[in-house]
Amino acid sequence: MSAETHEVHRHPAPTGFIRKYIFSIDHKVIGIQYIMLALAAVLVGMIMSLLMRLNLSWPGTSWPILETLFPTGAPGGLMTPEFYLSLVTMHGTIMVFFVLTTAPQGGFGNYFLPIQIGAEDMAFPYLNMLSFWVTLVGFIVILLAIVVEGNASVGQWFAGLGPSFTGGSGTVGPIGGWTGYAPLSALGKVAGPGQGAGMNLWVISIAIFCVGSLLGALNFITTLLNMRTKGMSLMRMPLTCWAWFTTAVLALLSFPVLLGGGILLLLDRIAGTSFFIPSGLYVSGLLSGSNPNFPLHTGGSPILWQHLFWFFGHPEVYIAILPGMGATSHILATFARKPIFGYRAMVFAIFAIGLLGFFVWGHHMFISGMSPYSAIAFSVLTLSIGVPSAVKTFNWLGTLWGARIRFTTAMLFAIGFVSLFVAGGITGLILGQSSLDLPMHDTYIVTAHFHLVMGVASIFGMFAALYFWFPKMFGRFMNETIGRIHFWITFIGVYTIFVPMHIMGIVGMPRRYSSFTEYRFLDSLHPLVVLVTVAAIITIAAQFLFYFNVFWSIFKGKKAGDNPWEATTLEWTTATPPPHDNFAGVLPTVYHGPYEFAVPGAPNDFVMQTDVGADVPSGDGHNGHKH
Amino acid sequence: MATMVTSTKKVTSKGIGSGGGFPGPNGKKPGGNGFHGGDRSKRKFSPATYRITMWVVLAAVVMMFAALSSVYIMSTEEQRRPIAMPSMFFVSTALILVSSGTFHQAGRSLQKDRPRAYLRWLLATLGLGLAFLGSQFVGWRELARAGVYFAGHPRSTFFYLATALHGLHLAGGIALVLYLVVRRLRLGWLLHGQKNSTWHSVVGLYWHTMDGIWVWLFLLLLIFK
Q1: Which of A57, A104, A316, B21 is the most buried if burial means most Cβ atoms within 10 Å?
Q2: What is residue A283's three-state secondary structure?
Q3: What is the DSSP string of B66-128?
Q4: Which helix (H) or strand (E) holds A286?
Q5: Rg (CA), chain A
Q6: A284, A274, A130, A265: which is closest to A204 by C-alpha?
Q7: Are A599 and A609 in contact (CB under 8 A)?
Q8: A259: which chain B residues are within 8 Å (Cβ-Cβ)?
Q9: Vertex A413: Cα angle to A407 and A416 (nearest 5)
Q10: Mean pLDDT along residues A378-395
Q11: Residues with Cβ < 8 Å from A71, sequence gap 6 or more?
Q12: Residue A580 and residue A121: Cα distance in Å, rounded?
């Protein structure tokens, strides 16, 4: 047996439809399942953002469809402030957890990490399947949280479990933001609409999601550390793998904290404990302990929930963005036909961002009344994240510098990612300083900042990844013309949506308000609000082009070969789409770094990682100039 | 054009990057990748997979207990309330410390290839683990008699919650030790092998960590009031 050809037959390919496509243990199918889950979830989240925009621009308008869907929630088709707040909550929760955490990591990571390191599957295929199904259960529970509060009859489904399990309060889910701030979220029905069954299901859904993500993270870490093929040293891994690995480590260390916090929050809600409920709380005209509906709570701290939440919450935003950074690096190098500029620096920057992410959670809490001294510490650490972020940005620009760029749709989205990351990141330097954050924190500038830098940028990373890897996944290209139209409308659209929000924020428009008709000083901003809504409608409409492109191209797209982009990494060495065990029984051996483009003397302008050709200069990925 | 080359390290016939750093079993063996030379239909046992997995699991578990501990430590003046440590929890501490010792002894018996002693020490560990859970239960009753209830005050809830979550994790450890016993009974004298020693060390890692977490929680509850 030669060194290059070790045969592998891990588990035979399943034949039945259910084992092949539904309860599959194949990481590729599970990856696609995650992507499909994200495509469904993003639709829900997007429709919610549309409803919010409509109400902000034309408050008081009656929307008959709302009355049909939520007879209790929107009587007469009018959106109540509570309805709006529950939309804010569910939009955030669904987008952050079920879109930005599932697709980049669970989706593309699951599909391509094993192939890119030359493994025939994840270390624990059954655990992998379990992690998807657990996540899906979490999604179903969060959908249930919407109807349980929005519909009076569904609201009674869980009423037998206790007083806090009744819903039907006329909102579309709980109210509390995706952060679920205590004490509002900890009190139960007494705190007002949306605080019954919907909030319980919200907490339960997040706890389930934590478990699913932990199982996934466990698999990713073990697979990457232990199942790399011969020759695939750590410094020869594509940057995507580094990003997924760092993301998995972040998930592993941050989700248990949220899980612990979630358990405490649920106990406060259903078991009468008071971790997050302070003494002497007066809510809805009732004093704690004065009424059987509001039992006595003593000694809790609402700020404690914020600490626990943001200790998870900050790494979480990196969980969303890091895979996008990995995909962007990968795609930029491929279509610039140049080695990624500063591979080693990129790896260390990913790790530095991940590491620093654990020490900056306090910058979400500057207005919580924390000591100015801790605020300074959090502020300095926050600003220091600018250093590895700048390293990455300059290396991306360095990769593009002087390149003969192939402007495919995937490349456009990757460049768009860089643009959005810079545009959104700049305001991070402003908001990271406590003195500037204090007046701005509850305004639209924060909304604009995080949507650009971790929302839209991550989504652009995923778009780039999907356009790039689609031929490998389905054997067909996505339509490039539709893709370009999709890119330009989306790219111009998101800037038109979020740049005006910066201005609104500086003027002082508060976020999370359902309408501004009562605030005369904001009247002059109304044309801007309408502009944002129109841009949002056009951008959302363009996403249906994307949906059409995905599903049309699966069946009718132009057929793709094994290596249509002339790329170098292992996923392009195998068949399209890859066989069940990825490499048809022969695991590849790796001789080169991941981004050997523009290699002098090579027959093409690139060297695949598996090319033996010993005369061609090789490397372990770093960008040194040793001649 | 030479500046575009990532580097110029020569590829030699065998020096093709043997796996990078930790844990780096890749590329070191011709078989590589944890696959048999002989039986290709089955995946070869890879000790590193089990060890890495256990470390990763423990990292998550430790993070959760760290979060809970910080909840306890970061409490405000108003939240502090001295709660007397139930005397039974001292017994619990003794039991779990001894159980780590017996588990260690089991490992030594395994090394010396003494299956009967191995089984005895494993059963002793199992018994001590179950006794620990029992003592926890008795300890809770003691707390309740002293007027410390689950609901009411964060400090008293924490007493129950921390011990219950630890107990739950220790129950997982008991299941793992039980699995070792089952393996021992099924394999009889054929104990000496990489797979057994790996399983034993992985379970040991978990067991000793649960011991450590208990000692940490015990000291936290005892000293930090």
Answers
A1: A104
A2: strand
A3: HHHHHHHHT--GGG----PPPHHHHHHHHHHHHHHHHHHHHHHHHHTT-HHHHHHHHHHHHHH
A4: strand A286-287
A5: 25
A6: A265
A7: no
A8: 64
A9: 105
A10: 96
A11: A151, A152
A12: 9
Q: What is the CA radius of gyration of chain B?
A: 23
Of B20, B37, B46, the CB nearest to A234: B20
Verify cis geometry, omega within 30 degrees of 0, for the bond prior to A104: no
CB A339 within 8 A of CB A623: yes
Cα angle for residues A25, A29, A33 (degrees, 5° grid): 110
User: What are the residues facing A606 on neighbouring strands?
Assistant: A597
Complex confidence, ipTM: 0.87
Rounded CA-CA distance A434/A363 in Å is 7
Which pLDDT score is estimated for B5?
Answer: 40
Measure CA A223 to chain center: 22
- How many angstroms from the chain centroid is the CA of residue B111? 20
pLDDT recorded at residue A221: 96
Mean predicted confidence (pLDDT) in B170-198? 85
- Which tokens go with B12? 């030699």
Cα–Cα distance, B110 to B183 (Å, whole number): 13
Which of A191, A173, A224, A172 has the alpha carbon at shortest distance from A27? A224
Which of B1, B3, B6, B46 should be substituted to probe chain A, the one whose Cβ sees the most A Cβ atoms within 10 Å?
B6
Cα angle A351-A357-A362, degrees, rounded to a multiple of 5: 165
- The rounded distance, in Å, linking the Cα atoms of B151 and A514 is 37
- For residue A618, the chain B residues in CB contact (below 8 A) are 7-11
pLDDT digits (tens, 9 = 90+) for B8-47: 443 333 333 333 333 333 433 333 343 333 333 345 678 8
- Give me the helix-helix angle, A526-556 and A27-57, nearest 10°: 150
Nearest to A283 by CA among A370, A162, A185, A165: A185
Angle between helices A125-150 and A197-226 (to 10 degrees): 160
Mind listing the pLDDT tens digit for each residue in A522-577? 999 999 999 999 999 999 999 999 999 999 999 999 999 999 999 999 999 999 99
Query: Of B183 and A329, which is predicted with more confidence?
Result: A329
Report the distance separating Cα A447 and Cα A450, nearest Å.
6
A571 Cβ partners below 8 Å, 6+ apart?
A112, A115, A116, A469, A472, A578
CA distance A455 to A90: 15
Do A223 and A125 touch, CB atoms closer than 8 A?
no
Residue of higher predicted confidence among A512 and A76: A512
Contacts of A595 in chain B (CB under 8 A): 6
Report the amino acid identity of residue B84. Answer: A
CB contact under 8 A, A623 and B60: no
Name which of A70-74, A236-240, A481-485, B187-191 the model is least confident about. Answer: B187-191
Has residue B81 got a pLDDT over 60?
Answer: yes
DSSP H or E run through A282: strand A282-283
| A-interface mutation test, from B1, B3, B5, most A Cβ less than 10 A away | B5
Say what the pTM is: 0.90
Residues A426, B102: Cα–Cα separation, whole Å: 58
User: Phi-psi region for residue A565, left (φ > 0), alpha (ψ -120 to 50) or beta?
Assistant: alpha
Residues A206-216: tens digit of each pLDDT: 999 999 999 99
Question: How high does pLDDT run on average in chain A?
Answer: 91
Q: Which two tokens stand for residue A375?
A: 């605020």
**Contact between B83 and B156 (Cβ < 8 Å):** yes
Q: Do A6 and B33 touch (CB under 8 A)?
A: yes
Instruction: Give the C-alpha separation, B197 to B200, whole Å.
Output: 5
Residue type at position B59: A
